[in-house]
Design goal:
The complex is a heterodimer of chains A (308) and B (219).
Chain A (H helix, E strand, L loop, with lengths): L7 E4 L17 E6 L8 H10 L25 E8 L5 E8 L8 H5 L6 E4 L4 E3 L9 H5 L6 E2 L6 E2 L5 H5 L5 H5 L5 E5 H17 L6 E3 L9 E5 L19 H7 L2 H22 L7 H22 L1
Parallel strand pairs in A: 2-11
Antiparallel strand pairs in A: 1-5, 2-9, 3-4, 5-6, 7-8, 10-11
Chain B lengths: L2 H10 L1 E3 L3 H25 L13 H26 L7 H8 L1 H5 L14 H23 L11 H31 L3 H6 L2 E3 H7 L1 H13 L1
Antiparallel strand pairs in B: 1-2
Helix pairs in contact in B: 2-3, 3-6, 6-7, 9-10
Classes of the chains: A alpha+beta (308), B mainly alpha (219).
Chain lengths: 308, 219
């Protein structure tokens, strides 16, 4: 699907539709991350660093396998390790590759005030165009997954691009290419859903009754999906939101309030203009002016008389 | 007395409403406000993003807006300090508000006599305080470069909404404020030159007029 990634479906802070005649006939793309196959080797993290020329600071050990400890402008994906004691008293090591979920309804794009700083390509990838970014951090408020990071160096927001540059020329994302167990796969969203279905059937046959696909409808589905052993409780995986959606506060802020407030302010100005042309200014007539002077003088003379 | 003399006497019959310091603090606040409206609206609605060019582009708008905001708040605090004692609500204000139709239709002769400020001005005073405090607090929370990392995400989201709401109320109130100054002739002179005519004072603020005329003669 070369060059599909250059066709833009949605653009931040833009009120007119982008050119939208070309549509991906094969549908959108998706990355499927199978947490049940992941061994936590972090090859994907390394591949991401290599392909994108990112080098995070070498941090310190905080007593977990998470390294670095959190995503940053230099670490667009981080393996999250959760130790979960299941009801049978057994320990489960749940490992999740964290990063941008590439929502179909992206909260970051909705919140962004800078035209063209965040785009959604026709193939579903949500991409930051840092040259248009103003560094306000609204995308952070908009994101239900706590993904965007603002660089302290250049005050611009960064996150996983789903290797839009690689996808544009028909290659899979770097993390996918590097995964040694095939836990990360990439293709059309339809294909990925079929693949996930087979995996889930297999998992269920092995006793993982609650195995399932994480493709949350609250954000219109995502272009990064997980196969989870415990799809009934995604939050086990280092706080993966059970029911992610764009916060209603962001919804009001970036939805109804925008046209309503602008229209109301314009209306206030128009009401003023029409009041002036219908009723007119409130002026002090010459007569009133004279009355005031006379009154002031009379007070004056009265005072003088009083003093005499 | 010749007509000419009379006219000049009327013209010279000016009384001071705002001192030079009053005016300077007012206009410094106003200039900050205009810059904040331009930069704030640029970030609020995409159709107004072009306004961000006024401050030198998107990044500069994002950088400068909060600093100008802090400055405006500081200047506004001085204004409040200087004017609060004239803005306390009195029983007559209620009556004035009841007759808002007379106010709007320029039937000022029907209105009760009022002091230095009318009820509308007093309400504006308190609305501004509410908005300014709301804007300051919410603005600090959403100030990404310095403070946002301290606050939980839900509070940041709420603050963004609160900031927009307070700004909306403030801007709408100031539109009314500016229009009132254009509508009631002589008001702009009060804040530009500091003086109003005796007739203006007597017509719009009779009790203040009485007070000023009396005290100035006592001196």
């Amino acid at each position: 699907m070369p060059l599909q990634s250059l066709d833009i479906k949605r653009m931040s802070a833009t009120t007119v539709p982008p050119p939208s005649v070309r549509e991906p006939i094969t549908g959108t793309v998706a990355k499927l991350i199978d947490t049940t196959k992941c061994i936590g080797c972090k090859a994907c993290q390394t591949a991401c660093m290599e392909w994108n020329d990112l080098r995070d600071e070498v941090g310190e050990n905080h007593g977990t396998y998470d390294n670095p400890r959190d995503m940053s402008e230099h670490s667009w994906t981080v393996m999250r390790f959760s130790e979960y004691e299941n009801p049978n008293g057994n320990l489960e090591w749940l490992i999740r590759k964290d990063g941008c979920m590439h929502c179909e309804d992206p909260g970051c794009l909705k919140a962004c005030p800078a035209p063209g700083a965040i785009v959604q390509y026709a193939n579903g990838i949500v991409d930051f165009q840092e040259e248009n970014c103003i560094g306000c951090g609204y995308c952070v408020s908009g994101c239900p997954f706590d993904v965007p990071r603002i660089s302290k160096k250049d005050n611009r927001a960064y996150k996983c691009t789903l290797c839009s540059d690689r996808v544009a020329v028909g290659q899979e994302p770097a993390c996918v290419k590097s995964c040694p167990t095939g836990a990360i796969v990439f293709g059309t969203k339809e294909d990925m859903k079929h693949h996930a279905e087979e995996r889930i059937t297999d998992l269920k046959s092995r006793g993982f009754d609650q195995a399932g696909l994480y493709d949350p409808t609250g954000v219109g589905g995502t272009h990064v999906m997980y196969v989870l052993h415990h799809a009934d409780n995604p939050s086990l995986y280092h706080g993966l939101p059970n029911k992610p959606r764009i916060s209603p506060m962001v919804g009001i802020w970036k939805g109804l309030s925008k046209p309503l407030a602008v229209a109301s302010m314009a209306a206030a100005a128009f009401i003023g203009f029409f009041h002036y042309t219908r009723i007119g200014p409130n002026e002090v007539s010459e007569k009133e002016e004279q009355e005031a002077v006379d009154e002031a003088n009379s007070v004056n003379s009265a005072e003088e008389t009083h003093h005499e | 007395m010749s007509e000419q003399k009379k006219a000049s006497q009327i013209e010279s019959a000016q009384i001071t409403r705002y001192t030079a310091d009053d005016r300077s603090f007012h206009w410094a606040t106003a200039i900050c406000f205009i810059l904040l409206v331009i930069s704030g609206l640029a970030l609020f609605h995409p159709s107004l993003f072009w306004l961000s060019n006024v401050l030198g582009g998107g990044q500069w708008t994002r950088i400068l807006h909060p600093f100008i905001g802090i400055l405006m708040f500081a200047l506004f605090v001085v204004l409040v300090y200087r004017f609060w004692h004239h803005n306390l609500i009195e029983p007559v204000d209620k009556q004035w508000m009841k007759q808002i139709k007379d106010v709007i239709n320029n039937r000022e002769e029907n209105l009760p006599h009022i002091g230095r400020y009318n009820a509308g001005q007093k309400i504006l005073f308190f609305v501004l305080i509410f908005c300014m405090v709301g804007l300051l607090l919410s603005g600090l929370v959403i100030w990404r470069a310095y403070f946002s990392w301290v606050f939980p995400i839900e509070l940041i989201r709420f603050s963004a909404l609160l900031h927009a709401f307070c700004a909306f109320v403030l801007i709408t109130s100031i539109i009314v404020h500016i229009y009132a100054a254009i509508w009631v002739k002589g008001s702009i002179g009060a804040m530009v030159r500091g003086t109003v005519s005796l007739g203006w004072a007597r017509k719009h603020h009779r009790l203040w007029f009485d007070e000023v005329v009396k005290t100035s003669k006592e001196k």
